[in-house]
Amino acid sequence: MEQEQEQNQIKSITSRAREYFVHKETNSTEKGKQVIYACSLCNKLINGTKPSNLISHMKCVHNDIYKTKIEIKGTSYAVKCLELLQNCVEKVTINKEPFRNILKSAFQKLIAKKVCKLNAAGHALNLSNKNLPDVKSHLKATANKIRDRISSEVKGRMISVMVDIASKHSLSVLGISIQYIKDGSHVIRTIGLIELKERHTADYIADLIHSCLLSYQVEISQIVSLTTDNAANMGATVKRLNEIFEQSEDEDESCETEEFIPDNLNVIHISDECYEEELYEVLHESDDADKELLNDLIDDSDEHTDLLNQLVSDFKRKYTTSLIYVNGVSCAAHTLQLAVKEAINSLNDGGRNFLALCRAIGKFIRLPNTKCIIVGQANLKYKWVRPDVTTRWSSTYLMLADLLECENVVTFFAKSEKQFALLLKKWDVLRELVDVLAVPYNATIALQQPHYTLSDFYGKWILMSIKLIKFTKEEIRHTEIASKLLKTLEKRKGQLLDNPAMICAVILDPRYSSEIDHAEKIRLAKLTLSNLWERYNLKMTVSEEHEHNENDREVEGGDGEDDISLLNSYFAQKGLRQSVLEPKPNRDASKRNIDIGMLLDKFLNDIAGSFLRCDQSVMKFWQAKQNDYPELFELSMVLNGIPPTQATVERLFSIFGFLYNSWRNQLSPELLEDMILIITNEDLFKIINKEDKEAVHSGIN
Which of 541, 532, 528, 542 is nearest to 637 (CA)? Predict the structure, then answer.
């Protein structure tokens, strides 16, 4: 590696020297080809077969030009010093090796000569100190540069946040990641792994999230959604963030009222009967004191005109915009697992006893002695049966699926063990359970993909229901698992559509928008989209341009042709016709004040009676419609950036568990966060390393 770097350095000097020479001729000699160059400064002919001859000529004859234009004094050692530090940081982060590997004798021998040369050249580098201060210092500096780069990326953008909590070896941490769409592609960034030092209350978690975002210069008003699990403290965290948002809005209003209250709302006549009626409806749910106060105001309006005008203005602002600023999104995979768990727990005694039998047999097969019997005496292939663990997703399905592959083993033990004989008699029950539970399992795997959208998740939910309905209509059914699971899915489907973000994402997706046909849901979508558009206009910089060039990504998730046909048939049976994408030229969305509700009505009227094929991409659809609905196009890009699951944070915790283990439990939380920041933002790490090398070159030259 060192020889290769030196050769590259010589090539760099040679290319600079050759700018002052002109190729004259190439002669063939006994020793090979001889290349003759002529110096453009003195016309002297030089044998350029060896590049060092050109460099020597410039150094001896044209020394001034050599020193100022050709020589790269010190660059070799400066770059080597930087590269050695970068490689050490990469070793302990990207390669996930412990710091002690740098101190091992084999590695120290490899770098000994290089370190000695660097120290002799004035680039002191200590890689033998057990604390490795130089490596850790460079690691921290690189992590800070990544933070600065992320801050620049998210400036003025509407983003979605994912959070979760994990504990390892008495260290409890809060993982925070963000997601948004840039140039038609999803961008996912890890921004924090924060040590939790207090009880995991909603106020404490919300304050940590807010502080972390502020460190990246992200305001609370830029947050579109917060994806969490279904824990009570996480739901309360979303409410707390909305309170913080409202407090910041109130502070801004107290300083710049006119900026938040449109001019046409500053003066409202008291004789406006519509608002009087609506105010009375609000008062109907108020306490007696408030009701008496407002009744007096309305009856004696001349005396309290200003106060009543303000009251009416506040009322209109309150009830014509969405009060939910940060939309809480429950992790889709977690929600699905809760539905499966509820369905399994609701089985009758026969179903629960059968699952207990499967667990007992699986435990027996995992015993070492059993493996010896299976492999030695029975001469059968051994299959490990994964245990059914309550806290592990899909563990019941995986256990049953493994057992299904052990039919030969079960048949062998059925001759002597009653439990195995009983299971063999109920083999059709096992097969049915595996077939039914495979439906939510495959959906869970698909949902963990990094670029899944809320509407993709909704489509997957519909597909699961369609498949389960087919199971319930089969003539021979051995269990009630299909009907139980279908019931729990339908119950949670209603809960899903109570979420404003989900409603907006589905209603803007022509594949599934026909599912939103309730007037109240459409009204909520209009309010949410209007609020989001107002915030979008305030936060997006005027000069920023969006070029969505990669919108031809089709639906991900492993849906086969059969699944796609099921979904398309489902909507076709409703009397809807398929839409055809017709791309049109792009133009930017207008930043003027517009009625998003009217635009949504126009869009829904245009797509009424039709649907987009379920294997088509909603991103590609909006690329084609960008010219017709530029504002809705921008909103769809924001909504499609909302992650339906916490899969990104779960992957973050997998890295956390790998780095912070029984052998590496002395890492400080700050160093651990810096390491994970580099690992999860590897693309930025490579860019920063390249820029640092270029800076060293340009700084010395």
Answer: 532
Short-list 405, 403, 417, CA closest to 373? 417
For the chain (701 residues), the mean pLDDT of every run of 10, in chain order, is: 45 75 76 79 82 84 80 68 93 92 92 86 83 93 96 92 90 93 90 92 93 92 90 89 78 47 35 47 48 54 57 51 71 89 91 93 93 89 90 89 93 91 93 94 88 89 91 82 91 81 91 85 89 79 41 51 69 60 48 78 86 82 88 92 90 88 82 94 94 78 47
The single residue listed with the structure tokens 């059925």 is 414
* Cα–Cα distance measured from residue 135 to residue 138, given in angstroms and rounded to the nearest whole number: 5
Q: Which among 320, 336, 291, 308 is positioned nearest to 448, based on CA atoms?
A: 336
* Helices vs. strands in the chain: H and E counts, helices first: 31, 10
* Six-digit token string for 23: 């190729």
**Backbone phi and psi for residue 387, each to the nearest 5 degrees, phi listed first:** -75, 155
Nearest 5°: CA angle at 78, between 80 and 112?
45
Angle, CA of 660, 664 and 670, to the nearest 5°? 60
Chain centroid offset of residue 125 CA: 38
Q: Which residues contact 320 (CB under 8 A, 6 or more apart)?
A: 527
Whole-number Cα distances in Å, 342 to 6, 242, 334, 457, 574: 66, 31, 12, 20, 31
Give me the residue label for tokens 């390892």. 168
Closest CA to 15 of 60, 48, 64: 48
Phi, psi angles (nearest 5°) of residue 287: -80, 170
Which residues does residue 33 pair with via DSSP β-bridges, in sequence order?
28
Q: Tell me the three-class secondary structure of 496-520, residue by residue.
A: HCCCHHHHHHHHCCCCCHHHCCCHH
> The whole model's pTM is what?
0.74
88 by Cβ neighbours in 10 Å (0-12 / 13-18 / 19+) ranks as: buried
Burial pattern 131-165, b for ≥16 Cβ within 10 A else e, equals: ebebbbebbeebbebbbebbeebbebbbbbbbbbb
Contacts of 332 (CB under 8 A, 6+ apart): 447, 457, 644, 645
Q: What are the distances in angstroms from CA 144 to CA 9, 94, 688? A: 30, 16, 11
Q: Where are the beta strands (DSSP E) in 557-631?
A: 577-578, 610-611
What residues have CB less than 8 Å from 605, skipping those under 6 apart?
Answer: none
Gap between the Cα atoms of 490 and 468, Å rounded: 11
Average pLDDT value over all residues in the chain = 80
